[in-house]
């Protein structure tokens, strides 16, 4: 039976459906790997938390003008949002110019662009932006919508056997990078989402829960979201010489 189930994972996979990764997600494997890979002795300084990449990232998302929009197609029932904030150096607090802010999200129907070719063009709700000279960014996106993982394959069978629901809380995917800093891949979640504590892929972390607020006097947006990011320099280990001595490690020279 186990071999048959493994075979069914391969049979259910297509170029746009990675059932193997979905199985890894629902059993918590990808989240566990994320926790291990990004574990850091912060020594009082906390970089932005990471979260799982998921199966929907694309390397082909276009760069867009700062202040532009990733909403390329109609999103019935969606809530356009101005997302803005600052990317800063974890250690100095200074803004990081020219950091790349890569964002992708599902539309208001819970589907990503390549899952929904009848309603979405390529790279709808995807885009890359560069921070300005002060490390600041702003662009338009949607307040995200919760959605169900597909249940017509092995992942759905497994969830049913485990008596678990297939829902993911609403979320926006982010990947922030700069040549001189450690990149972070993460997700952010509206604090009013009902699935925060039961995310079927275990990706929610407390500091990734954010507050979408009403926005006034902006014809392009109903909601406002401020989200600031802290990146650690590439040389940062999270352990100062003092704390290394305390825990019995030799300081790096």
Automatic annotation (TrEMBL):
Record-linked Pfam families: Dioxygenase_C (PF00775), Dioxygenase_N (PF04444)
Single GO molecular function: catechol 1,2-dioxygenase activity
Residues of the Intradiol ring-cleavage dioxygenases domain: 53-232
Gene Ontology terms: biological process: catechol-containing compound metabolic process
Domain Catechol dioxygenase N-terminal: 2-40
Keywords: Dioxygenase, Iron, Metal-binding, Oxidoreductase
Alphabetized Gene3D superfamilies for the sequence: Aromatic compound dioxygenase
Record family assignment: Belongs to the intradiol ring-cleavage dioxygenase family.
Protein name: Catechol 1,2-dioxygenase
Originating organism: Lachnellula subtilissima
Gene name of the record: HQD2
């Amino acid at each position: 039976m186990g071999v048959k189930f493994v075979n069914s994972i391969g049979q259910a996979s297509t170029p746009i459906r990675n059932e193997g990764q979905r199985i890894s997600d629902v059993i918590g494997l990808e989240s566990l790997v994320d926790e291990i890979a990004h574990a850091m002795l912060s020594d009082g300084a906390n970089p932005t938390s990471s979260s799982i990449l998921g199966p929907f990232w694309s390397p082909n998302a276009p760069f867009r003008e700062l202040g532009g929009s990733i909403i390329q197609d109609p999103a019935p029932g969606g809530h356009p949002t101005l997302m803005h904030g600052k990317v800063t150096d974890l250690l100095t607090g200074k803004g990081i110019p020219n950091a790349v802010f890569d964002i992708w999200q599902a539309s208001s129907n819970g589907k990503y662009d390549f899952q929904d070719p009848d309603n979405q063009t390529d790279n709808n709700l995807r885009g890359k932006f560069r921070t300005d000279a002060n490390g600041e960014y702003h662009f338009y996106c949607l307040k995200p919508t919760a959605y169900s993982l597909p249940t017509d394959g092995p992942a759905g069978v497994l969830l049913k056997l485990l008596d678990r629901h297939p829902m993911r809380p609403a979320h926006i995917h982010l990947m922030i990078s700069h040549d001189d800093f450690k990149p972070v891949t993460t997700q952010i979640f509206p604090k009013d989402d009902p699935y925060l504590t039961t995310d079927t892929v275990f990706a929610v972390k407390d500091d990734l829960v954010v507050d979408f607020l009403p926005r006034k006097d902006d014809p392009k947006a109903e909601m406002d979201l401020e989200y600031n990011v802290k990146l650690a320099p590439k040389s940062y280990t999270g352990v100062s010489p003092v704390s290394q001595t305390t825990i019995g490690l030799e300081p790096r020279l």
